[in-house]
């Protein structure tokens, strides 16, 4: 099979041809197929093109099965395609009944069902291939579906049909129909708990989805275009080396094509995937890290502080740009045209191989080094390089942050850096430019009330979509009386204690949904939703055995997020006002000797403007009523930008508020020590010690005055750890009033005006566009 000569990236617009859509005609939904572009009386194509299909006004002809035609614009066709599919492009139909069947040539005959193994034992071959059933759907149309799919989605209906029409003895039915019919009632009960819908796997956004390269090319031939062939040709370039003699020691693996349709513009996509599960584990490292969210926040702060540009780019084809590190070969399939059937050594890091992630990261790292960048030892996926801004001779560090194939560059001329990287590693042209979405959240530059420009991150779109998905799941898949509250002013209702909940445990399906919700909300917290950190932490303690009450609390949080989805975490570079008179210094030599903060011996020279590091620290003594464990909470700021936050149950049971506060501050100082190390390894100058604010006066006094003695030995480790940090000049601690301590949000469930004040002091736009 020869691949035709095709353009790698066909013009958008042809992507809509031959798409199946459902349209109302005569009071019923009727299936039509987009057949051609519309032309006016002069033969000129009508409408104007736009990369966004919703804004595309070109017109098309839609053919119906009865021979009728309709004229529709591209935006109406795209709207129809989106409306009949879920967010992943899949269609779900409700089955009315099975009305016909047909047997294809590749179906197993009854006489051929019995086979003999090499050891002489006989067995029955079990396969549903080669049979199709005609389904009548509740929407009013019919379609032929494979027995394989219907056996999985509607086993009882399919078995009953086979029994009624007398084909249950056939080789594709006799090994499973009797068992299904004997267990009919139990299967019906389980199916009703899951769903009664059929997932149409042969289409995506109404477009035929091939399973093999042969089917893809056959679709192109039937449709009169080369869209799938172009997708295959784009993927095949420089992946394998055919006509090679396979060396000794290479492992044979299967490869197959996976096909998809992109949501944005219905572009066809083909991906060659290796069966890496059939290979031995490689001796080389297979782990590939990504840049941490904390590092991203620091980098965005430094961009605003040093007045630098921020640009992004996405590596084209990612993994397959890297050379493979495993010794593997395969037999070429029909997607390789005239080379089909030949042996070939895999030379690129295909998706599916165990080492592909690590191979791509090493490949990317080699280009970073060629460009003069150095990997940060505190975060290997941040690369830095000393630069001088030409207009004012300002010296600073340029940063490149790598999250797999997503590149974020910070530089006074960031586009020049991405252009240079593009010569080594091609970037998707449409992805290069100003940042819009990064790690699932919206990035934007904001001018604050003090006229300072700062970068902000908003997970609003992610939160809004998560809420919609939750409501959709509740309406269609989850059994039980569950719904989002209409008036959720706070994440938790009043007087709520998840640890004391004694409601019934959730069934497996609801339990899985609960765990999914907690995972989604954890990522929201990572993206900046600090206002739900404590509540999500409390519910995370019940992932092993969630109860109905826990699920209702999780849904209450989703109701709160629906009401308050619009938030921004702003990385304000403004220097805070710190009253140094609140941090007196003392001579600690007689207690801890001549100690000083340990500086990394290999840290780069500090460049750029310095930063102030602050922490608000608090604990909730014996807050958990079941075990009486306390909760640690703190917020860490660089200048006015929130960089890190923690809400976590303490590992020990403390018998006093004093002890719980010491444990919380020790944990916070450990985090600060790691942050100070990271800042120094990024070349960021520090203005002085970390300024720590706590609201327990006894604990602050014991930490800051050398003559204070500890009379509770159980707190001695935390006591000396904190005091030594103060003695070496790493930390400076002072007391603030409880109502001024924003870390209260990370330790207690708050309500009303107090909550609005605490949250409004951290997040922008959450309460009627209020800003801190």
Describe the structure.
- With 772 residues, the chain is of the alpha+beta class.
- It is 29% helix and 24% strand.
- The strands form nine sheets. The protein has a five-stranded antiparallel beta sheet, sandwiched between helices.
- Strand 6 (114-116) and strand 7 form a beta hairpin.
- The protein is globular, with a radius of gyration of 31 Å.
- The model is unreliable at 1-13 and 192-199 (pLDDT under 50).
CATH superfamily of the domain at 573-760: Ribonuclease H-like superfamily/Ribonuclease H
Provide the low-confidence segments as ranges.
Answer: 1-13, 192-199
For the largest beta-sheet, the strand count, sense and barrel status come to: 5 strands, antiparallel
Share of helix among residues? 25-40%
Summarize this structure briefly.
With 772 residues, the protein is of the alpha+beta class. 29% of the residues lie in helices and 24% in strands. The chain contains 19 helices and 32 strands.
């Amino acid at each position: 099979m020869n691949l035709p000569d095709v353009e790698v990236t066909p013009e958008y617009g042809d992507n809509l041809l031959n798409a199946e859509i459902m349209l109302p005609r005569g009071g019923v939904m009727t299936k039509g197929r987009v057949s051609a572009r519309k032309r006016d009386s002069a033969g000129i194509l009508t409408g104007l093109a736009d990369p966004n299909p919703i804004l595309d006004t070109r017109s098309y002809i839609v053919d119906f099965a009865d021979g009728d035609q309709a004229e529709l614009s591209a935006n109406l066709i795209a709207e129809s395609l989106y409306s009949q599919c879920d967010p992943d492009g899949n269609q779900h139909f409700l089955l009315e009944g099975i009305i016909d069947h047909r047997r294809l040539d590749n179906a197993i005959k009854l006489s051929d069902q019995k086979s003999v193994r090499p050891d002489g034992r006989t067995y029955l071959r079990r396969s549903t291939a080669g049979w199709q059933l005609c389904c009548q759907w509740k929407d009013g149309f019919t379609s032929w579906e494979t027995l394989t799919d219907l056996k999985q989605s509607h086993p009882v209906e399919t078995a009953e049909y086979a029994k009624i029409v007398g084909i249950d003895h056939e080789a594709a039915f006799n090994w499973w129909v009797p068992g299904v019919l004997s267990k009919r009632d139990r299967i019906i009960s389980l199916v009703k708990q899951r769903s009664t819908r059929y997932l149409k796997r042969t289409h995506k956004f109404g477009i035929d989805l091939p399973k093999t390269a042969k089917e893809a090319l056959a679709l192109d031939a039937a449709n009169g275009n080369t869209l799938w062939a172009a997708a295959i040709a784009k993927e095949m370039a420089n992946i394998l080396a055919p006509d090679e003699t396979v060396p000794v020691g290479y492992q044979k693996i299967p490869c197959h094509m996976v096909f998809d349709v992109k949501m944005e513009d219905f572009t066809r996509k083909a991906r060659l995937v290796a069966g890496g599960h059939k290979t031995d584990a490689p001796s080389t490292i297979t782990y590939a890290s990504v840049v941490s969210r904390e590092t991203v926040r620091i980098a965005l702060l430094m961009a605003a502080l040093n007045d630098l540009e921020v640009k992004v780019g996405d590596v084209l084809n990612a993994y397959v740009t890297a050379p493979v590190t495993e010794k593997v070969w395969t037999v070429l399939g029909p997607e390789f045209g005239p080379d089909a059937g030949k042996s070939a050594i895999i030379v690129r890091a295909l998706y599916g191989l165990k080492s592909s992630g690590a191979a791509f990261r090493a490949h990317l790292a080699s280009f970073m080094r060629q460009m003069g960048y150095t990997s940060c030892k505190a975060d290997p996926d941040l690369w830095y390089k000393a630069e001088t801004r030409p207009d004012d001779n300002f010296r600073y560090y340029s940063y490149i942050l790598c999250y797999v194939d997503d590149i974020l560059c910070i530089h006074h001329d960031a586009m020049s850096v991405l252009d240079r990287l593009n010569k080594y590693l091609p970037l998707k042209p449409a992805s290069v430019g100003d940042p819009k979405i990064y790690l699932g959240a919206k990035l934007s530059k904001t001018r604050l009330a003090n006229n300072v420009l700062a970068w902000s991150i908003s997970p609003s779109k992610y939160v809004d979509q998560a809420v919609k998905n939750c409501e959709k799941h509740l309406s269609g898949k989850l059994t039980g009386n569950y719904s989002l509250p209409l008036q959720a002013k706070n994440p938790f209702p009043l007087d709520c204690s998840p640890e004391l909940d004694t409601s019934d445990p959730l069934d497996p399906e609801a339990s899985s949904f609960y765990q999914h919700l907690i995972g989604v909300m954890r990522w929201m917290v990572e993206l900046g939703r600090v206002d739900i950190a404590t509540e999500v932490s409390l519910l995370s303690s019940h992932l092993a055995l969630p109860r109905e009450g826990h699920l209702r609390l999780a849904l209450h949080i989703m109701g709160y997020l629906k009401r308050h989805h619009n938030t921004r975490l702003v990385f304000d570079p403004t220097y805070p006002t710190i009253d140094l008179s609140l941090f007196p210094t003392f001579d600690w030599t007689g207690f801890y000797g001549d100690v000083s903060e340990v500086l990394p011996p290999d840290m780069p020279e500090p460049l750029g403007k310095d930063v102030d590091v602050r922490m608000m620290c608090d604990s909730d003594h014996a807050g958990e009523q079941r075990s009486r464990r306390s909760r640690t909470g703190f917020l860490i700021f660089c200048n006015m930008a929130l960089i890190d936050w923690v809400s976590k149950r303490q590992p020990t049971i403390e018998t006093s508020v004093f002890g719980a506060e010491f444990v919380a501050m020790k944990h916070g100082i450990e985090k600060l020590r790691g942050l100070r190390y990271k800042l120094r390894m990024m070349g960021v100058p520090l203005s002085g010690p970390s300024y720590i604010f706590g609201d327990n006066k006894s604990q602050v006094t014991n930490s800051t005055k050398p003559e204070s003695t500890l009379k509770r030995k159980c707190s001695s480790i935390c006591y000396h750890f904190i005091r030594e940090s103060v003695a070496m000049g790493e930390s400076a601690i002072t007391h603030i009033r409880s109502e001024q301590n924003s870390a209260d949000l990370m330790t207690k469930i708050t309500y009303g005006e107090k909550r609005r004040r605490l949250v409004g002091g951290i997040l922008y736009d959450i309460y009627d566009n209020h800003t801190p």
